[in-house]
Amino acid sequence: MVVGEQEIRAIIQEVVAKLKTEEANSGSLGVFEDMNEAIKASIEAQKVMHSLSMDSREKIIQNIKKLTYENAETLAVMGVEETGMGNIPHKILKHRLVAEKTPGTEDITTTAWSGDRGLTLVEMGPFGVIGAITPCTNPSETIICNTIGMIAGGNTVVFNPHPAAVKTSIMAVNLVNQASLEAGGPANIAVTVSKPTLETSDIMLKHPAIQLIAATGGPGVVTTVLSSGKRGIGAGAGNPPVLVDDTADIAKAAMDIVNGCTFDNNLPCIAEKEVVAFESITDELIYHMMENGCYMINEEEQDKLTKLVLPEGRLNRKYVGKNAKFILAGIGIEVPDTIRCIIFVGKKEHPLIAEELMMPILGIVKARCIDDAIAKAVWLEHGNRHSAHMHSKNIDNLTKFGKAIDTAIFVKNAPSYSALGFGGEGFCTFTIASRTGEGLTSASTFTKRRRCVMADSFCVR
To answer: CB-hemisphere CA count at 13 Å for 316?
Structure first.
C-alpha cells in the first residue's frame, strides 16, 4: 500500500478533527484511576463473560472487529502522533489485519474420547481475569488483539500499557468496551488505569485474583513477569536475521527484505533486523536492494550512525521507529523520500548489526557457505528463539537453518510480515511468546485445559 504525503496529511487532519469532537463527548469505558478498582471491575465483568454462550462472545468479538476496522485510521494516527514512532499507512494496515485475521471463538475447541469405558472430554476454560502489559510500539493493535483472544476463552483482561502510549491504549480499551455493550455484553471486559506506572504494574502482578500474566515488550518486562510467581506468557525481544543463499531469487529476496524491514519503520519484533548473505551473491543483492530504495553508507558514515543511534552503547529512543530519511538527516545526509532503508556491509559483531534497533537499518554480513551463514545467523539471533527468515530454493539449506535457528517464526521466501497473515496464510497476533514457548498466541493460549470424565456410560456406539 503506497500513500502519498498529501493523503497522509488529509488523514491526519480528518482524524484530529474527529478526536476533538470525541474528546468533548468522551466517556471512560474501562478506565479507572486506581488499579485495585480496575481489577475489581474486571472480576465482576468476568463472572458475566464466563456465563455467556459462545455465540454471545462471538457477537462481541465481531463488533470489536467492526469498530477496529472503522477506526483503523484514527488509531493509526493516534499511535504515531503520541509515540512519535511508526508509519501511519502501515499502522492502518495492521489494525485492519487485527480486524480481519484475529481468531475468536473458533479457536476454542473440545477434544473427546469415546469407548467401552465411557466418555471423556477435554474442554478449554478461562483463567478468569488476565493481567497484560503492552508496548508502545504496537499499543492499540496489541490491546485489541489480546482482548479478542482473551474474551473468546471467557476471560476478562486488565491492561497496564506503556506510559508513552497511554492515550492510544485508553482509546483501544474504550473501543472494545463500547463494542461489548453494543452487542449486549458487559462493560469492563478490558480495563486499564488513566496513569499506568511501575507501581500500578506491581499491584497487578501481585493481585491474588490474577493468575495469568501476558507481557508483550522488551526483555526486562518479560523477566519481571516470569519472576512474579504466576503463570507468565512472555513475548520478548527478537533480533531476526534473514539468510540469503546462492540459490535464491535475488531480485525478489531484495524486494521482500526491504519491504519487511521498512514495514512500520521496523517496529514489528518479527521484522528483518540484519542480513546474512553468501559472498557470491552479496553484490547482486545490494544492487537490487538499492533499486528498492536502500541507501548504502560508507565506514565513516557507519561510525557517525553508530554514535547517533547507539550513544555510549545505549539505544537512542529518538530514532526508534523513525524512517530512513529522518535517521540519515541526523548524520547530515539528505536523501529523497524514496529512500526507505539504510544498508552497509560489516562484521556480525558490529553494534548496528548485533543490537536490535527497531529502525530501518540493515547491516549485511557475508558468509562463505551455508554452515558459515547459519552459524552467524544463529549468533545474531542471540537465542531469543523469536523470528528468522530465509531466501533459498535449496530445501536442504532451508531445513538445516530452520532446525538450527529454532525460532517461533521461520519465514521462507517472503517478507517477514507474512508470518502474521499479511500476504501469507495463518492468523494474526501481536503477542509472540517465543521465550515461554507458546509461540503465536491466540484465544486457545489464554485457556486452561480441563478433563471431564463419565466412566462406563454415555458411549452409544
So the answer is: 16
| pTM for the predicted model, two decimal places | 0.91
The answer to whether 240 touches 389, Cβ cutoff 8 Å, is yes
Round to whole Å and give the CA distance between 135 and 234: 12
Say how far apart CA 441 and CA 132 lie, in whole Å.
13
Class of the CATH-defined domain 241-420: alpha beta
C-alpha cell at 36: 485495585
CATH 3.40.605.10 boundaries in the chain: 5-236+439-451
Residue pLDDT, tens place only, 84-95: 999 999 999 999
**Contacts for 148 with CB less than 8 Å, ≥ 6 apart:** 61, 64, 65, 98, 102, 103, 104, 443
Q: Which tens digits make up the pLDDT trace of 357-389?
A: 999 999 999 999 999 999 999 999 999 999 999
Cβ 303 vs Cβ 348: under 8 Å: no
Region class of 309: left (phi > 0), else alpha (psi between -120 and 50), else beta: alpha
The dihedrals phi and psi of 105, each to the nearest 5 degrees, come to -70, -15
The pLDDT of residue 26 is 44
Residue whose C-alpha cell reads 548485533 in the numeric block:
354
Q: List phi, psi (to 5°) of 378.
A: -60, -40
Please report how many Cα atoms fall inside a 13 Å half-sphere around the Cα of residue 378, on the Cβ side.
13
* CATH number of the structural domain 5-236+439-451: 3.40.605.10
Mean pLDDT computed over every residue of the chain:
93
- Enumerate the CATH 3.40.309.10 domain ranges in the chain, comma separated: 241-420
Residue 130 backbone zone (phi > 0: left; psi -120 to 50: alpha; other: beta):
beta
How far is 408 from 84, CA to CA, in rounded Å?
A: 29
pLDDT of amino acid 16? 52
What is the SS3 assignment for 134? Answer: strand
The Cα 271–Cα 260 span in angstroms is 6
- Number of other CB atoms surrounding residue 23 within 10 Å: 9
Cβ neighbour number for residue 434 with a 10 Å cutoff: 24
Closest by CA position to 66, among listed 182, 228, 159: 182
Residue ranges of E strands in 279-391: 294-296, 341-345, 361-367, 387-391
Task: Tell me what the mean pLDDT of segment 254-283 comes to.
Answer: 97
* Percent of the chain whose pLDDT exceeds 90: 87
- The answer for residues whose C-beta is within 8 angstroms of residue 281's C-beta and 6 or more apart is 244, 245, 246, 248, 250
What mean pLDDT do residues 411-426 have? 95
pLDDT tens digits for range 198-230: 999 999 999 999 999 999 987 888 888 888 889
